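Researcher: Sequence of UDP-galactose-4-epimerase follows. Predict its structure.
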Amino acid sequence: MKIAVLGGDGFCGWPASLHLSSLGHDVAIVDNLSRRRIDAELGAESLTPIATIDERLAAWREVTGSEIAFRNIDIAQDYDGLLAFIEEFAPDAVIHFAEQRAAPYSMKNSRTKRYTVDNNVNATHNLLAAIVESGRDVHVVHLGTMGVYGYGTAGMKIPEGYLDIQVDAGENGIVEQQILYPTNPGSVYHMTKVLDQNLFAYYAKNDGLRITDLHQGIVWGTHTAQTLRDERLINRFDYDGDYGTVLNRFLMQAAIGYPLTVHGTGGQTRAFIHIRDMAKCIQLAVENPPARGERVKIFNQMTETHRVRDLAELIGRIADAEVQMVPNPRKESAENELHVVNDAFLDLGLRPTKLEEGLLVEVEDVARRYADRVDRSKIPARSLWTSNQSEGVPQGEK
Ligand code: NAD
Ligand code: USQ
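Model: Prediction complete. Tokens:
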């Protein structure tokens, strides 16, 4: 298959591109390298030393003999460039990772809020409009988030995108319907994924586009079988207060002897997926497209749920690390239960890589290996959801 990976230089896009290439697909990466520029803006680099995109692709060619093409296009701003790429490369599928993905970055100030909305919504809409204008039948696989649902329910499991409801229609009696699950985003970033969802529903209905939206949980880990093949293929590892996600951050903190930064009571329950399963899910989604005219296919791309303080306690125990409750810089429920349906991927054959000690130690080892690259001043989460909150800074680290 010819597969375009938008955002293929990023944390998920890079290992997914290598995985698809290793399966024999003809892969082309499109990326404007904005994530690398945000590293420079924040003064916080990936913990792992990532090679340039040219070095990465040359290494992949050397190691496997396979060619991955690269095009530097800002898909949110350069519509003509994106359209020309789709017409020229003629992909069977486009995997769309190319969005600003950090909730804390999106909440820093009005500039980053506006950038996140402009970038993410335009990127998605440009892609859909370009596919329609190209006249091609391209399957879009988009990386959405579990955060579109919010993280609580009325006690039931969160379904895969659609909710069965009954409406009292008066004299017409009780009417049954299926609707998109009501959204409850917790940041401007998460809200952009809600907006994406409506764009997808519209283009599937109006233009018959084939679209799969993957509502993904927090991705953890760093290596995949392919990124391990050469040092120059190493994946990025975000640890800073804006882009670092909770489990990888705790493992990095344990590795360098920094107290694990549990926000608030740590009662937040979230969904997780290991990076190798992320790549496998992308493969399964590409191999199982919806039919033309079918509504958007929505999969919950997660394998397990965990409460933040339980993760901290587990890592504290395994790695003999100190756990510290810090003020929560976010506006989120102090405690929540989370139960999620993920049958679609299990039915397609996903065998979940569950959180276990060996894998946690593997990530901690990566962090220990590159510990000298850590800038401790970049660890606390300093992006506040509202101005009357305090930063997530451990005592003695201000
Ligand atoms: P990332 O920031 O590492 O990668 C995104 C890539 O897209 C970057 O390389 C960036 O340069 C590129 N990009 C952004 N805007 C672009 C534009 N306008 N034009 C071209 N390229 C652009 O993020 P990630 O962690 O790999 O996440 C990928 C996708 O998966 C995101 O959409 C994110 O919302 C989703 N997701 C990520 C996680 C996670 O835990 N990392 C969890 C759930 C969902
Ligand atoms: N948290 C801590 N300590 C930390 C960092 C985070 O307690 O040092 C807490 C946060 O307050 C939050 C939870 O851990 O309650 C998750 O935070 P996170 O930064 O790991 O995840 P989040 O902001 O939700 O975003 C990440 C990705 C995003 C993706 C989302 C999936 O950056 O792209 O969409 O996970 S989900 O969480 O399922 O919505």
